[in-house]
Batch of 2 targets.
Target 1
Amino acid sequence: MADANDPDHQEKDIGRARRTKQDREGRFAALQKLKDLKGTKNKVTITEVDNVYEEVDEREYSKRVQRRQEDDWIIDDDGSGYIEDGREVFDDDLGDDNAVQAKSVGRGHKKKDLLKCVPGRKNNIKNMLIGMPSKNKEKDAKSKDDDILGDIMQELNSTPSSAPPRQTVSTLKRKALTPGSTINRTPTSIPRAGNTLGASRLLKAEPKRLPFAGGASNIDDIIDDCTLIEESNSQCQDYSCKMDNQMEIDEFDSQPEIKNYDSQSTDATIDKFNIPCEENVEQQELKRISSISEFDLTSGWETIKNNVDVNQSVAFLDLGSNELPLIEGDDGEQYLRMYWFDAYEDPYVQSGTVYLFGKTYIESAKTYVSCCVSVKNIEKHIYVLPRETVIDPRTGQDTGVPVNFMDVYEEFNTRVADRYKIAQFKSRRVLKKYGFEPASIPRESEYLEVKYSAEHNLPTNLKGATFSHIFGANTSALENFLLDKRIKGPCWLNVKNPQKANPPVSWCKVEAAVPHIDQIELDVKRDAPPPLAVLSLSLRTVVNSRSQQVEIVAISCLVQNEFHIDRAAPQPAFQQHFCILSRPTEEPWPLDHRDSLTGATVTKIERTESERALLNCFLAKINKIDPDVIVGHDVASYDLDILLHRLAQNKADKWSRLGRLRRTNIPQSKGVSRSHLAMSGRLVCDVKISAKELIRARSYDLESLCQQVLNLTGLRPDLSSDAVKKMYSSSASLIGMVAITMQDAANTLRLMYELNVLPLALQITSIAGNLLSRTLLGGRSERNEYLLLHAFHEKGYIVPDRQAFKKSTKAEDSEPEDGAIEKTSRSKKGRRKPAYAGGLVLDPKRGFYDKYVLLMDFNSLYPSIIQEFNICFTTVDRQITKASQGEEEVLPDLPDSALPPGILPTEIRKLVDSRREVKKLINDKLSKDLLLQYDIRQKALKLTANSMYGCLGFSNSRFYAKPLAALITSKGREILLQTRDLVRKMNLDVIYGDTDSLMIDSNSVDYDQVMKIGIKIKQEVNKLYKHLELDIDGVFQRLLLLKKKKYAAVTVTQVVRDNKKEMITQQEIKGLDIVRRDWSQLAIQAGKYALEQILGDLSADERIARIQQKLEDIRDGFRNGTIDLSLLQITKQLTKNPENYPDAKNLSHVQVAIRTNSRGGKKLVQGDTVSFIICQDGSNMVATQRAYSMEEMKMPANAHLKPDIQYYLAQQVHPVVARLCDLLEGIDAVRIAEFLGIDPSGYRSAQNNSNEHDTGSPPVTDEERFQSCEKFYFQCSEKTCGFEMSMDNVFRKTDDGYVEFALSRCGNSNCKKIPFTAEKQLVNRLTLAIRKHIQLYYAGWMICEDQSCATRTRRIALKSVRAHPVCIGCGTSNMVVEYNDFDLYTQLCYYQHMFDASKAINQLKPNERDQVKLAHNNSMDKTYKALLNNINQTLLESAYSQVNLAGLFYSFNRPKSEASSTY
């Protein structure tokens, strides 16, 4: 400790004035007195003092602070000056981050000098407190009730008068920067971010006060929010967390401030920015990976946000503590009118309570605010089915004693109620219907209805001596509430006589509670929904290399406070926007970040010093904005899950403000279910989930959706974790990262508008009667369940129990499914096929049709069948399901036509009729908003009606009924066959049929004539049915029909414009490779081009010539290196999590996903798509094990990776084009391989395999038969020559056109040796060639029949389909022998054909025959015969050479003695 008398110490004190806080009222004396009394029982009493602090108003305080900050009162010692911002000493914070930072500063080479400037450092109370372990907040509770003690403890948290100024303020010096200076970017060289958010400054402007408010919406809570942020060293440096009455958003009049930005160049990259660092490998990598163009950095976002006028703010409501915005009804009762859109219940913590979330109107403020109503004491309803006779509970035998209702009541009262501790319950005798599984339950019977508290849980399989079943034991309180009150979707509710919620249970502005369900009533006015507040969310994360934890470094938000769900998308798209920014733990701020971020016009950037500060600031923003809808891309399964994880890790205060229900513990589940629980009261709109249901796309990542839906061109900058970290090297790149994040949030919001996600979800929810939040998360089965639940409940039916029903179906379905599977084969992947037959698919008549083809289609076939035959739970007898053991299931009989319509047909008819009426209302005279709503309504009705059949065949549905589903599909097959036969009777050819459609070859080129044929077919079919309707779905001008569910066509439609008929054509593709995502874009482009030529009005030769030119261009593009890497990406979807694949080694996309997940960051999970490129990496592994993502290829360590050209030509482009050209004449797989410059021999072998058993084709010539065989190669016997020759026939033509023997002279013109003279050498050479082919056959190599799979193995898989082993590589196609017995026999026959001179001479023309006879001599004839005898001897050993009739009929002619000995 430094001595006060030390002259050096005194000299230092003189040279610098120290700021001290005067002890005006003896507070330190009181503290000393408290210490002296420590351990005694005396109580300290301190006289009350007044005016401890000087009180000034806000304006005077701001003036003093400004004056102090502008006063340069520190004397410069070296011309550079100390860093001092003039803050109050009590503004300093002692958070963990500051302590760590102070520690890091002390590690520098100036550590000793710094310590000299801080005399008495060890006795500093602050340093003592920093070293103390952290304590729980509970220990501070004692000081909250004692004002004096609280003041003393506050004094302890401030700087004592004897302590010197803080090290980070008084000792760090600011160096003068020159343009050419180089700065060492180390953590010790960066000034510590000071605290600029004082508690007193939170009340900068008086908030707008309104006369009504709820639980936590007053200004005190807002102050508390920001105080919590301050306590955790999380000050927003730019006063961003001030909770005043207006959101601080900059006006958007100028472009963001980026230094050295070249506005004239479109290729401006980050490396053009003036980054004051030395150029090293890391900086070069930054330039390569994070190379972002002007558009990518800011222009895209600037274009969007410059059109937005930000004039609106969020008003705070300071509501009375005991008042609710009640309205007096006509009957004199007080009620709260609210529009509800979400509900939540916690059956484990508060069973029987449902929380309704919505909005209510504040008349005095002329605005809508959030509202929460707690509906308590919702009872459980169970229905007890009495037995006919009493069952002995011990033995289970029937006693024969009849059961009456008093017996059931007594057993429930004495045994069930006592056992499950049900103290009170109500019961009555009711008549109910039941029409579900099990079929043994009577259709209509009397039940004992019992109502009791939801706190008690009864098992669903409970049985007794007097009752056999109970229903409704596990029905949730929310389901009972929706069904009893007949609430179908968001609507206006009247809450009668509500009470103020105490204590508050939510973060809503208005809170109320009702003790009984009867106090909730539907509002009959049906007013328009109120506007919703929408917040679009986008996160930017990095991975901490040490902890491997994901850290959130930026949260970008866009706010739209006036989103009307029943109108068109609002303009502008958003009203407010901001970005909360922090830094990664491992990265410092850029040196000029203060001025750059403050002056940036990209958005309002609110800088925080830690992730915990960022999260607390975000929660405060959420509480202030109070959004009703959170929009994001993959927000439900990733963004919110990351937010919850980081909130838990950082122990953020009041994390539940993320939703609207106050909670203590964060849900522990994962994925979508966790987000749904945490976000109760706020709707989560995930555009990724919605897009999967509404559109079909190659990939559902944000970039692909923007390109397909928003028609945005250009690549979206994909910032990896490392790229984000490196963007902290300069303020310019950091602002660019913020702009990209803001643009992602804007594009996500635009996607929601463009797809009409919320309006469509609202209409579907209103039809089905489920929760809107569940509709937004997908799941059609749940919607259909609720639609049927409402329908059956209104008709007095008991609905099936969820868990009990699922258990029973598993037990009952096991035998029928196994029996059905025994008669059917398994799929290629070994999965079981459906337990009942589905739709009928007719065998197609493959070919290319250039005359008009009619496409006839049944409108909504399965819903129409349900209506046509009155198929329902209530009409079909499902008790008999099997004829006998081991046989197929027997379908139930159709219901009697005299029965009244069932509930299922009635509901479908309502949907169909409603859609028809809505479509009638659509016309051009309607307003834009009304026209949009009608269109959305009819789409919702169509989606719901078409999915009604699905719940019958979905085994996890509560309304699963396999007999009904099988009956419906059976009638569909029957109707399709009847329609086909009817068309055939009209002398028309049906070339293809699939489930509900037929393709009919009209054999005509007259469009009007074709339409007449279609109308005639339609009339003949429709008169047979009441509800089924066949219609003309389209006319194909040209059709390429390849196989089942795979075709391409040009559809033609005739329209009348200006009294003239015009033909409009459009291409339609179904099931082809070019519409699948698991092919590269290069292959898809080549396939689309080939298809355009095939379907175009071209001649055969011109069509082939264009395809050839395209393929040669692709080949040359690979050779020249002009093919874009993005075209080589192959996209495949994960059907399960990567770690759950048993054969991950052989699956490219799984290997890439595993490596991607190992690097940290966003995990690839089930349902995600993975893009990769097959590369040459120097290894000998198969292609499936050489897959790399685009990000991996850009890594410096993988600079040697190059695309595998052979793979893309042979297994990507070739298969796609070859399958399209399979039916064309003049082009085949061999020619396509030649166009691409790859070896065509393998494709010749494949053609031979396919034609091996083709007996219907015309006979082929010897040239066609042996075209894929290997020639005979031999060398000249002359030692000085050794020329290698090939022989493919007995003769060959000379240059002058004459015919000569192939062995008559050497191929070397300078050699005089005659080859046929070396007879023994030729025979030996032929013997070796024959043995080589025989060895190749017995090697047993097998290859995959799919040409796109390169698997080649001698190992036979255990799994087989149709007697062929399944490929161990792709797992989908069959393995075939690479060189089979047919190939060997054909090769030997080729050799025989090659050396049969006599046969060859006889086949020559007369003039040619005379020429060769002159050259034919005995010596030559002897050589040819020796070679022919050699090959004939080999053929005699083959089983192909002879047919032994005695062997074939040996079993019929065996001696009796031999036959009897075998038995």
Target 2
Amino acid sequence: MSSPPDHPLIIQLRLPSSHPQLLEGLDIWLRLGLISDAKVRQICREYLVCSVILQPQIENLPQDVLTSATRSKSVIATLPPKPKAPAKPNVLTSMFQSLGEELSVRWLLFLGVFLVVLSSGVLAASQWERFPAIGQYGVLLAYTLSFYGFTFWAGKQTNLKLTAQTLLIVTLLLVPVNFWAMDSFSLWNNPINWIILAFGSLVLSTITVLLSRNRTIISNFPSGNLPLFNILGLSYLHWGWKISGFPLIAVYLAMVGTTLIIVYQNLRQTRKNSDAQNDIWGIGIYFAVIVYELLGILSRAIFIVGVNVTQLGLAIGLCGWLTVWLVERNLTSNSSPQTEMGVSNPTNTPSIASIWEKLGGILLFLGWLVSVFNEPWQAITVSGLSLWVFSQRLGKYSFQIDLLAFFVIGLQTIWLGWRLVPGELQELIINIAANLTNAQNQHFVLLSLALFPYLVLMVTLTNRFHRANKPNLVMFGDQLSVLFGVSLTMLGIINPTVRSLNLLFSTITLATVTKQRSSISLIYLTHITGVLTLCSSINWWFPNLSYEIWAVFLLTLMVGEWIFSWRETVWKNSAWYIGLGLATVSFFLLWIKAEAFWYGNLANADYWRTIWLITPLTLTALGSRSSEASQKTKIFVSIIAVLSAQLLTFPLAGTRLIGLGVGTAVMFVNTRYLRNQTTAGTTIGLGLSVIVATLWQVFPNLGLSGWLMVNALAVLGLWVARKLLFNRTQIYALAADKWAIALCILELLGISVHSYLIYSGNAIAGIPYFIATAIALTAIIYRSWQQPTNWAFLGIGWCLELLVAEILGFGEHSIIKIGIANIALGLTTQLFGEWWRRKYQLTNLPSSFHILPLIYGAFSVILRFNTFTDWTGLYSLGVALILIGIGRRKEEFKPLLYFGIIGVSISAYELLFYQMSQATGGALGDGLIAMSALGATIMYAYRILSPWLISYLYLTPKELKNIAHLHWVWSSCLFLAAITVPIQVNLSVGIGTGLLLMRYAIWQGRKNTLNIPVQRYWGIEIDEIWVYLGLIEAAIVNIYLQHLPVVSFIGKLLLPWRGALACIVAYFLYIIPWENWGWSKTPWQRAAYILPLFIIWQTQQQIYPITLVLCAGFYIFLAIVTSQLRFTYLSVALIDWALFREFNHLGLTDSLWYVTPIGLSFLYIAQIDQQLRLPESKSIRHSLRILSSSLICGWPVLFHQNLPFIPGIFSLIAIFVGLALRVRAFLYVGTAAFLITSIYQLVIFSLSYSFLKWIVGLLVGILLIYIAANFETRRTQINILIRNTINEFENWE
């Protein structure tokens, strides 16, 4: 049915008031006649509250907005000539303005309606039993009529549209509840009630018709009688539910009837009408009411009447399908002129549409779920509806998840259809199929063939997507089909017949698909499936073949595949890779028995493993006939096959030489095509393996010494061969050189292990080992004679080490001798390097002359690691001398020099430790003091002997001074550590050492007089840092002095007054003229700042409050002298501490006594701090005031609500202080505390009187509705009031 010609078009726009094109747009609409001049003025008055000028615009004059040159006059709003940029609104202003937005108004209306309905419902329920049935229904009817009356009144108001729409929706939702109540209250039983029944039905029907045709409130409600008949029919279907069986009939009448009406109404609409009312059939008010009533009927049938939910599956699914269908129709017709103009309905948004669509999907799922177990035919119907939904989505959106859902639904539909087959027929079909496939005890494997047609259907559907050019669905469909096909194959894999038939059908299907749309993946999949089909068929026909026969078959198939790969076809690459796969499988089949050979199980030894040598031979033949592009790949795979074949042939003596010999020959051929050192090295390695295998077979009892001699001779032979082959074929020469190097390393490692076994008592020295070492040394010298390298010198040094170890092994096996020999070798090589450099006048020595002495020294340290005697210090001194000798050669080696210097100190400490270990008595602290004293001695030694050490060690005076400083740090750390442990005999030594360390540090802190630039660390001069360290040493010495009896006695007497005495000492530290004496005054003055605090911390348990007050006065003095008010923060903290101690003494234990001074202290900081008084720190100062006042006022609010006058007094004080001082923080916090206290007391009162609680809820709900209506009607006035208030607050602190 067509809509009336004067049907109003409602366009809702949402724009910021500061939009730059707003005035221009209003002028254009005014010229086009789309808006009146009065409406423009109203918009300007309500939303454009900045200064504007309404004036007639004369033709051809300059204009601030776009106008037509042909117009004579137009009234538009223009801004001043130079408008200021709109200031960013305050956060509170934005928050209050947002309350006037449509979403906020709707939300407040919802909350208000919810509270009113809930509170009134509870109030009525509390008195409900006193009313008869007619009275109970009368209350509900009166409630509905009240909402209708409010809706009618709001609809007459021009500026309460949102309120009217909300009340209309609530009224329409209450109508079916009334009909439900009529039936539930059994108004049919009494003739008197029939009058109320008729009156209520007439009134409710009239309300529904009037509201549905009220175009003032809603303009998008569908026209015609069918929608009204649908709404009223759903309401009237709540009658008669006392009749047996009628609830189920009512549900299906509602579902089927609604579906037919909506589908019929929608399909008969013309394109014009459907465009004009594109949201009628989508997700508008009509749609929401219909879905609400359908869900209400379903809910009543399931949860109230108790209808078996399994009988409602189709109804639920039909409801879900209808919901999805309506959404789809709405989205299909969404390309209307209104949409093109940018006009949108607030209720017609994609997010809401998606919510309804998800709701429909959930209902479809629930309909299937409740019927799938007991009503399969209903589940099949719901599945059909679901398949239609997802087929539509696939055609429209092409989502992969939709295809997955379509696949799963279709698969379970097959299962549901099978459940509809009678049981006898099911059993007959299964028995026939099981007899044909020999699967009597494995019926589940029949699914592998039974579900294959569904796989073909999915493949056909994927081909359809391919023709429709939907690549994402094609890719996902192929993946889904492959996964499903593999699953079907896995189901039947245990049955040879089923497996072979499944693979045959899969091959045919894949071949068909590959022919239609060829791709690499399909080609490979088809080829692999064909090979698997052949193998499965052979296993079906010949089930008892051995692994070796299978390996021969697979190797034959491999050779055939590789021969087939020579031809230029689409199957070339797949044949090559499948041949590789067949070779791999055959290898593992042969490996099954070869693995036992490796573990020594030779009971069933045979020569079948040699058949796998056909693989590298075939690969080499393929490589020799292939193009250059693929030749390298085939030769490389041939090399891998040669090496893999040795795993099969090596364990048996009869096949070992065959495998190595064939491998050597094949590698020799491969090296011709792949000429690099790797292939040549592999060839040489296999050749050496042939020699080793031959010697192993000829001399089976050759011992370790013999093999070491053979290996040494092999190294020598390879280096000789290298020299002979170098001019003929360099790749073999270089490969032989690398093999010789590897074997030489192996030789030296073997001899090293033998030497270790000698000195661990598990082996004896022998002449063959000495000879092998000598041959290896000769080979290294031969190799490096003309081309000496550092590695060669290192090898020679290794051989010398082994020769010494083997020679000393003939005598007593002493590790210490080896260590001493290493120190001798280290010193000798170090001195030899010095001699070599002087003889040949070399600037730089080879690196091996530096490395060898260090290696010897490090090895000697490892050897003596567990030895501690009276001479181990000298042992360490020898290693340190090696490090010093190497480190002084070059600037780059200076770290070694430092390590050597550290080694000298370590040797001295080793001597001290040994003496301490032999001494008796004393405590741990005595040892630490002795170590500290030794460090101080070394420190002064470096300072005294600095002229000679500088010339020998090639160090600068600064570097030597830094070494002394490091010893000072080490000694100071030991001196500090000694405080924490007992001291028995070295207390005087400790005090003396501390004085020396203190004197050294303070003396280093004197300013230099040579105008040398002063170094700074962390912004502090190095001289001042030394003074700080000296003062710290003085503090430590003071702690040592406390252990003296006289000092301890006096200290106990003055313990509570130490803080005051510290203030006196700090006062003199502050006023002494330190700069006249050569020091900077800064560290001494800072020490004066810290000293009282340090002493207070030490005496915190026995300190008097008056002492704290005196210390606070000292810091007030510092604040006055230095003009730094922040010193008073310490005074405030000390005064708070004194107050806390006094409160505790007076027995004031309430936490409020302690929290209040803390909050006041923070307020003091916020008031006097100079940084916080700056304009840019205004927000920080405000936050600190908020925090402090919240602490003061919030504490009684949280913990003293039982005495409400306490938080009330605190909050009132804060309010009056804020008003008096014009400070926002105090006013905000005081007001918040006062409101919280008041509300809390109101809640307590309400809990005591429950009836009052629901009265309050009803009033709050009415208040929310009132607020929402005011925000909708008086946005401008409220915004102006809020803005003026906030602007006034901006002038406060």
